[in-house]
Write a structure and sequence with these properties.
Number of helices: 7
CATH architecture of the largest domain: 3-Layer(aba) Sandwich
Order of helices and strands: EHEEHEHEHEHEHEEH
Structural class: alpha/beta
Number of domains: 2
Shape: globular
Largest sheet: 7 strands, mixed
Number of strands: 9
Length: about 270
């Protein structure tokens, strides 16, 4: 008797959580490529960034959203709205929280209410488990499990690759049969320029630390491909960095950028 053919699955998965909970780190880990900027600052992710994972029997399209926070400016309000607007359009939601939480905070409570309203399949990801004791983690799992019927609860450390397949397997299990929406060679819907802009902004945030807030915007003006002495393909990039205040301009210019190295490729 011929074995049943395994149906190909596909779907859209939204990563949502408070600022600095590790969404971008996890996205890059799951995709296996650098698609989102990572910096130890709130609001590093400004827009909904997509990452694509192609597996043997599925294609998973991830959306990394800006961290949920109390908005103080129009930009902040737009970022929060972008995050929440992704929930109803998701097939599966990855809700990230920190293992160091002792209860459901205000930000996580708001996210939970949005998930309940949308009634979407949700996987609870508890990040940074290396920072807490087992009893604390079990207590947190119990608290959240009473609030919503999660498809799964997965404790992880986003920087550890061993959790990657566990998460992907759980997501695939909860997807419906569907086509591949993107070419199997693609890992993001961002253009090469957008990837370059994200990379430069990430390096700027790390270099500038507390001297300049996260209020900077990068625009690539020119990109020219060439080969170096080792015959490797590289890009010469000219970009403009926009900042919110005139006083920040001098700080940015004074920084030594010559040692900045990037690691990304075209898709």
């Amino acid at each position: 008797m011929e074995k049943d053919k395994i149906e190909f699955k596909s779907g859209f998965v939204t990563l949502i959580g408070r600022t600095n909970v590790g969404k971008s780190t996890l996205l890059n880990q799951l995709v296996g490529e650098k698609v989102a900027a990572i910096a130890n600052k709130v609001q590093t992710t400004r827009t909904a960034i997509k990452g694509i994972v192609n597996r043997k029997n599925s294609q998973i399209i991830f959306t990394d959203t800006p961290g949920i926070h109390k908005p103080k400016t129009k930009l902040n309000e737009t970022m929060v709205e972008t995050s929440f607007s992704s929930i109803p359009d998701s097939d599966v939601i990855l809700f990230l929280i920190e293992a160091t939480s002792i209860d459901i905070g205000r930000g996580d409570s708001i996210i939970l209410e949005k998930i309940k309203e949308a009634k979407r399949k949700t996987i609870l990801i508890i990040n940074k488990i290396d920072l807490v004791k087992r009893e604390t983690l079990l207590n947190l799992i119990d608290i959240y499990s009473k609030e919503y019927d999660f498809e799964a609860v997965i404790p992880i450390s986003a920087t550890n690759t061993k959790y990657k397949e566990i998460i992907l397997d759980e997501i695939e299990k909860n997807l419906k049969p569907g086509p591949a929406y993107y070419d199997i060679e693609e890992y993001t819907d961002q253009t090469l320029r957008q990837l370059a802009e994200e990379t430069i902004r990430e390096k700027a945030l790390k270099l500038l630390q507390d001297e300049v807030p996260h209020g900077i915007f990068v625009e690539v003006e020119k990109m020219k491909e060439r080969k170096n002495k080792q015959k490797e393909e590289i890009y010469d990039i000219e970009a403009t960095i926009y900042c919110l205040r005139e006083s920040h301009k001098g700080i940015i210019i004074r920084k030594k950028w010559r040692n900045v190295k990037t690691n990304w490729k075209s898709c």
